[in-house]
Amino acid sequence: MERETPEPAPPPTFLRGEDSSSARARFECMIRRVQAEVCAALEAVEEGSGGGAVFREDAWTRPGGGGGISRVLQGGRVFEKAAGNVSVVYGVMPPDAYRAARPEAAAAAGAEKAGPVPFFAAGVSSVIHPNNPFAPTLHFNYRYFETEALQDVPGAPRQWWFGGGTDLTPSYIIEEDIQHFHSVQKQACDKFDPRFYPRFKRWCDDYFHIKHRGERRGVGGIFFDDLNDHDQEMLLDFTTGCADSVIPAYIPILERWKDTPFTEDHRAWQQLRRGRYVEFNLVYDRGTTFGLKTGGRIASILVSLPLTARWEYDHKPEVGTEEWKLLDVCINPKEWI
């Protein structure tokens, strides 16, 4: 397992000898820009509410190739914890990591018995946990993968694909906010293919399913993975458009609710829902699994988890309450627009 090397500042690029016009180079440029813009927008919200918390930045490199930038703000006036990661890594991954990244492709290629797989993976991810229970948690992640032939399957072609999505996890159902959020996702999708939003909205509902609970993590958004069924240039532009939609989708909702008064009961319910967030990320999330199995930077991999969460024995909200309405939507996903 490779250990990362801390760096005093991020290098201009984590790539080695890559043409600036390549998909790898352009994707790295995009994710670093998006990270900077989202962190700046969140710091502006924090400052606008009288808070002084700012993002701490850690840069690191990986001996086998690549590196990353982790930015974390915690203990703020608006944000309990907000994190934005960029990683650009490459080298060779073990077979179990390949199965985590592409379970269907690995099975088709007989990767159960295959050797290490040369790979490239780059992505930007962010999770934002506000203090106020009426301000929803937001998650987004956009990534680009390439794999070479399995080492014991010579002659196989290089594979590439895009993945990602943006999803909303409120503690309380505020339909106007959820409709706004989904409308922005749909607009980003419709610029490229009107079939994308319904397809990726359904995929999001299915992916963020906490199977042992029989409920979804939140109210969804869009999600896609292993996406290579269109021209690479088009999908790079599409992924960029989705990443650029994060700020207009989320910041207006955050501004509306960040200073709303709340009770200890509201806070306790938020903590219970954050417990569900932890369960999904540690048990089901493919990105977390991939990072752990490729010897990734643990602090960055687990940065999505909230500072605090809560579990109560056999907790069930009373039917008809606002808390029950949220749970009902998580069990029975609905169309918002």
From TrEMBL:
SUPFAM superfamilies xrefs: Coproporphyrinogen III oxidase
Entry-linked Gene3D superfamilies: Coproporphyrinogen III oxidase, aerobic (3.40.1500.10)
Keywords assigned: Chlorophyll biosynthesis, Chloroplast, Heme biosynthesis, Oxidoreductase, Plastid, Porphyrin biosynthesis, Transit peptide
Classification via InterPro entries: Coprogen_oxidase_aer, Coprogen_oxidase_aer_sf, Coprogen_oxidase_CS
Reaction(s) catalysed by this chain's protein: coproporphyrinogen III + O2 + 2 H(+) = protoporphyrinogen IX + 2 CO2 + 2 H2O
Major localisation: plastid
Pathway: Porphyrin-containing compound metabolism; protoporphyrin-IX biosynthesis; protoporphyrinogen-IX from coproporphyrinogen-III (O2 route): step 1/1
The EC number(s) this enzyme carries: 1.3.3.3
GO cellular component, one term: chloroplast
GO BP term, example: chlorophyll biosynthetic process
Top-level class of the enzyme under EC nomenclature: oxidoreductase
Subunit structure: Homodimer.
Protein name per UniProt: Oxygen-dependent coproporphyrinogen-III oxidase, chloroplastic
Organism of this sequence: Brachypodium distachyon
